[in-house]
Hints:
Elements: E1 2-8, H1 15-26, E2 31-34, H2 43-46, E3 49-57, E4 61-64, H3 74-78, E5 84-87, E6 90-93, H4 103-107, E7 113-116, E8 119-127, E9 133-139, H5 146-163, E10 168-175, H6 179-185, E11 190-195, H7 199-214, E12 218-223, H8 230-242, E13 246-250, H9 256-262, H10 273-289
Parallel strand pairs: 1-10, 1-11, 2-9, 2-10, 11-12, 12-13
Antiparallel strand pairs: 3-8, 4-7, 5-6, 8-9
Amino acid sequence: MKEIVVISGKGGTGKTSLTAAFAFLAGEDVILADCDVDAADMHLLMKPDVAKREDFYSGEMAHVIQENCTLCGKCQEICRFGAIKFEKDQYIVDKLSCEGCGYCARICPTKTIINEKPQVGEWYISNVRTGSQMVHARLNIGADNSGKLVAKVKNEARNLAESVNKNLILIDGSPGIGCPVVSSLSGASLVVLVTEPSISGLHDLKRVYQLVKTFNIKAGCIINKADINTQKSKEIKSFLKENNIQLITELPYTEEFTKAMTSGKTIVEIEEKELSELMLNAWNSILSLTL
């Protein structure tokens, strides 16, 4: 089974728009996975029909058993995160502030405080308009453990691919280099780096590639909006050559991307022959890199 992960060093490079376009080109041949769980938006273009939904529990959070509490206040005194509040004659836990360290539970003289796994999000398996299926998720506001939720999405995508005899998974990863990206890269066959010709685009491309190198994964790169700064595009291509990263394609800046998104379509669904051909050639190049 092959896993193609599309990531970017920074947000706003067009990563999700390109991944959705590749999904449309691949049709029924791929299982999709949206691993950008902190800001999931692949569903806006794929229009999923949810077939399965489950809560996701992870981490730990303090919980006060009110009927056993003697109101001694020791938990509030020692909580360095300010997560224990005294309201309406009882001590309660502020869910957004609690780090789940468990210290309050240890010092509670009556064992009134316990640590529980909180529900921090949901994950779904959906039928999408390309005729395939997508595994995606939603992380609750203020919740952490996005890396673990990404791992859950990837595992379910693998299970789904096996169950329906698909040998290719296309993954929309998170921008940056944090835990969700690390989790997205685990087990990948190929990484597609999406960048733009700007100072921050080149800087963050270098930074995210350092992460990719530690996983020893083959990488290719797409320069989006390549014509808005030809000098930076040249610098990006020099970096790619120095690091043996294949340049998959250079895409021009066009407002057609925005028009497509606002109409809920991918760029390959609109009547723009040049862009469609570039995207098709890029997808074929990506497939050849997985061989």
